[in-house]
Amino acid sequence: MFRSFRSLRVQLPLIFLAGIVIAGVVTTAISVRLFQQFARDQAISQLSREAHGIAALYTNAIKEGYGNAGGDRKAPTFAAANLRLATGAKLYWIGPNLPFPGQEANLGLPRLPQKTIDWTSGKSLSFEFTPPGANRTYIAVANPLIIRSTSVGAVVVAQPKTDISKRVRSLIERLALAGVLGLAVAGLLAWYLSRRIVRPVLQLSRAADDVAAGNYDVRVPPNAPGELGHLSERFDEMAHRLAEVEAMERNFLMSVSHELRTPLTAIRGHVAALREGVVQDAELEQQSLETVEHEAQRLERLVGDIIDLAKLDTHRFTVTQEEVDMGDLLSQAFERYRDEAQRRSIDYRCELTDRPVIESDGDRVLQVVANLLSNAFKATPDGGRISLELAQRNGTVHVAVEDSGPGIPPESRERIFRPFVSHVGGGTGLGLPIARELSGALGGRLDLQSEVGRGSRFELVLPVRTS
Questions:
Q1: Which domain range does residue 392 map to?
Q2: Which of 66, 129, 330, 336 is deepest in the core (most CB within 10 A)?
Q3: Number of neighbours of residue 139 by Cβ within 10 angstroms
Q4: Torsion of CA 422, 425, 431, 435, to 10 degrees
Q5: Residue 189 belongs to what H/E stretch?
Q6: Is position 211 within any domain?
Q7: Which of 322, 325, 439, 320 lies closest to 372, judged by CA?
Q8: What percent of the chain is modeled with pLDDT above 70?
C-alpha cells in the first residue's frame, strides 16, 4: 500500500487535486467574506431607502396635524402593520411620546429605549441591536423626524441579521456543489495527465533497469510529451553509445590479447627450442635469439603504446616545455626510415621550408612524427612515394607526412583513429590514436586528407610559442 502511494501515478493526481482544493478553499473564503460585506451593504442601503420614505410619511402627517386652523391636532393614523407588510421589515419608534391634545401618541409603532442610539443628532444612523423580548440580532437604519428644525424622534426600520446569513449559506451551498463538480472534472484531468506523464517515466525506469543489467538494446518510445520526449531521445542515444563503448572495450581486449599473444607465442617457442636443445646449429641459435629479442622489443613497444594511450585517455599524461628545433627534429625522424626507403625503392623526401624553434615536448613531437612516418611506410607499396614537410604559417607550425598508398575511404577516416583499428596490414592500430591524442595534449591537432587510390596526407599543426 505504501509503495503504491509513493508511486508517481498516485502522487501526481493527489498533488494536483490538493492544489485545486486549497485554491478552492481560499477562493471560497474570500468570496464568502466579500459577499457578506456586499449583502450587508445592500441590506443597509435598502433599509435606508425604506426608513427615509416612512419617516417622510410620518413627518408630513405630523406637520398637517399641527397646521389645522381649528387647532384640532390629531396623531397620524398610518397602519403600522401595512407598512411592515409593504417593506418586509420590522418598524420601531425611538424618542418621546408626541404631544397631541388630549392624548399621548407614539405613532402606533413599538418603542425602543431612548438610549439605543443618539436619536437627537438628527442624522440617519445604521446600527445593530437586539429588540426587547427578542433573541435575534437585527441590523437597522434610524431616520429622524424633523419638525421645525428639531428632531422629535426617529423611525427605525430593521431586519434580522440571519437573513444575510441565509443568503451567505445559499452561496456556500452553491459554491460547494460547483466545487464537487469541479473536483470531479479535475480528478479525471489529473488521472489523464498522470497516465500521460508517468507512462514514459515508467518506460524510462524499466529501460534504465535493463541498461543497468547490461542490456543496451533498449528503445524508449519517442512519443512522450515535451521535455520527457527530449529525455527519451537522449536516453536512446546514451544506450546506443554505451553499446558502442562496450563493443569497443570487448574489441580492445580481444585485440590486446591477440597482439600480446603473438610475440609471447614466438618467444616461448624459440626459448623452448633452445632449452630443449632442438636448435644445435650456432647460426640457427643466433637467429632464434635475435627473434626473441625482436619479439621482446615488439612486446615492449606494444605495452608502452597501451600505457601511453591509457594515460592520455585519463588525462594523466604530462607534457614538458622546452625549446624544440623543428628542423633538427624532423631531420632526426627522417633518418630513422632512410634505410627502409632505400631497401624498398621508395621515393623518400624531406622538404623543410622553414626551421622554426617552438616551446613544446620534443620527445612527444618526435613520437607523433615517427608514428605518422611508420603508418605511411606500412601503407605505401614498394616503389611508392613518401614526403615529410615542415612549414610555418599564421603563427602555427605544420608538419605533413604524405604517402602514395591506397588512401582511406571517407567512412573509415574517423574509425582509423580508434585503438587497434588498422587500415593497413601488419600494424597494431595504436600509432594513429596515440598520435591524435598526443597532438591534442601538445596544444595542437592532427588533420587528415585522403583520396582513395592516390594516397593520404596527415598534417600535425602545433602552436609556435617561440621563446
A1: 322-463
A2: 330
A3: 19
A4: -60
A5: helix 162-212
A6: no
A7: 439
A8: 81
